[in-house]
Amino acid sequence: MSRRGQSRHRTAKRLTGAAAAAAMALTATAVAPRPAASDGELSAALVQRGKSDLCIEPRIRTQDVVSSCQLLAVEAPMSFTVVSLFGEELLARCPISFSVHVGSTGSLVVGNIASSQISDDVSGPCGDILACRRVVDGPEEDKLPWKGRLVPSSSKSFRAELDPCFDTCLGRFEGSIDAAFEQTAKRTWTLRVHSEVLGASGLEISGSWVMSPAFGGRLTIDAK
Amino acid sequence: MTAASARRRLPFVTLALGIAAILAGTGCGDGEQDAVRTAIGEIRRAYLSEQYSRVCSRMTVAAQREVGQLGHATPSNCPADIAKQMSAAILAPRDRIDPEIREIDVDGDKATVTAIAGGNAPSTFYLRKQDGAWKLNQLWGTTAPPPPDLQ
Predict the structure, then answer these.
(1) Do A125 and B72 touch (CB under 8 A)?
(2) Is residue B22 pLDDT above 70, yes or no?
(3) Are B124 and B114 in contact (CB under 8 A)?
(4) DSSP assigned state of B63
(5) Cα A149 from Cα A8, distance rounded (Å)
(6) Which of A29, A139, A168, B37 ranks highest by number of CB atoms within 10 Å?
(7) What ipTM describes this predicted complex?
(8) Residue A135, by phi and psi: left (phi above 0), alpha (psi -120 to 50) or beta?
(9) From CA A205, how far away is CA A160, in angstroms rounded?
(10) Domain boundaries, chain A
């Protein structure tokens, strides 16, 4: 289970007159003060028009995940391979898109997992693989978000610990994986999964996704 | 050993023999683990030599169904499904190496096996004892059956 950090908010100071004007001129270029983080924690903020705001911890409702720092992953192929006593078999290779919600201290929630080829009415290999759903008293179904956290790896890269879950025609595969989470350009990040097996389930996944903030700006993440 | 010390040890010897008898009777000893290990070896050998009917005879109906579902279709005939979905004839060289068995946990007529196959991360599969023989019951470490619309 991922460790969820506490939500921290910047305290705004009320200023008046010339002092306020001077302060506004300064904050236009200055980076917002960061709270002290405890061991192994990160500080994540969204920078827009030179102004930096700490990310708010993701809130999970039934289907939706809400947070101030949301990255959208461009749809890219994910390969699903099953490993058994009889060797490796490719189950499917399907385009997958999702959103990544980053919290102020590096907590992660992956939501809105979708595919242009994965839906209930699509036949074929990709129609047999769905993000896990919670069945509530019959037909109502919710896609379950995946939780996780970021761990520093190097100056501009992090390790994302995630707990993906897939319902497939073979059953439910779930378990923890490690993914590379790297800043590849000023405004883009990349999430890369290389032959990671979900726990001891036997399902191996691979893929690479380019992500950028949903509402513009750029996401900065600093290790403390 | 004097007669007195032998008398003192007698209750402990009796207790140890009793525990050993209970463990042997419930199948908790190494005997069942060895039987599971042997079954895995036999299934693997039959598979690698493409004797799929023999492989299927060492699989429960549930495991046979899993092989058929691997092809995203309704399972038909077990040997034909294996030949079609996971033929040993086109197996990668690393998958020809016997899996490294890390752990065998026997609980009555069920066995949970953790093994490393093909140099991958450890994965779990399950066997079940039917008619006195250990059979492959679940090929993967899935935690729930497929939802109704994916079956």
Answers:
(1) yes
(2) no
(3) yes
(4) H
(5) 17
(6) A168
(7) 0.78
(8) beta
(9) 15
(10) 17-223
pLDDT band of residue B117 (cuts 50, 70, 90) is: confident
- The interface residues of chain B toward chain A in range 102-131, judged by CB-CB distance below 8 A, are 114-115, 117-118, 120-125
Residue A50 predicted with pLDDT over 60: yes
Query: Which residue reads 């463990």 in tokens?
Result: B23
For the purposes of burial, counting CB atoms within 10 Å of the CB of B7, is it exposed (0-12), middle (13-18) or buried (19 or more)?
exposed
* Chain A residues in contact with chain B using a Cβ-Cβ cutoff of 8 Å: 82-89, 91-92, 120, 124-125, 127-128, 130, 133, 135, 167-175, 195-197, 199-204
Gap between the terminal Cα atoms of chain A: 22
Short-list A216, A157, A147, CA closest to A189: A157
Q: Which residues of A touch B141 (CB under 8 A)?
A: 173, 175, 199-202
**Beta-carbon count within 10 A of A31 CB:** 13
Class of domain B33-150: alpha beta
Q: How far is CA A84 from CA A20, A132, B30, in A?
A: 66, 22, 24
Is B132:A194 a contact under the CB 8 Å cutoff? no
Instruction: Locate the domains of chain B by residue range.
Output: 33-150
Contact list, B142 vs chain A (CB under 8 Å): 170-173, 201
- Residue A129: both structure tokens together: 């693989």
Helix (H) or strand (E) holding A22, with range, is helix A17-27
Confirm if B95 and A87 have CB atoms less than 8 A apart.
Answer: yes
Question: Which residue, chain included where needed, has tokens 């399950």?
Answer: B126
Across the interface, of A88, A133, A168, the residue whose CB is closest to B118 is A88
A58-62, A157-161, B7-11, B103-107: the lowest-pLDDT one: B7-11
Residue contact A86–B114, C-beta within 8 A: no
Q: How high is the pLDDT of residue B23?
A: 46
Please give the model's pTM, rounded to 2 decimal places: 0.78
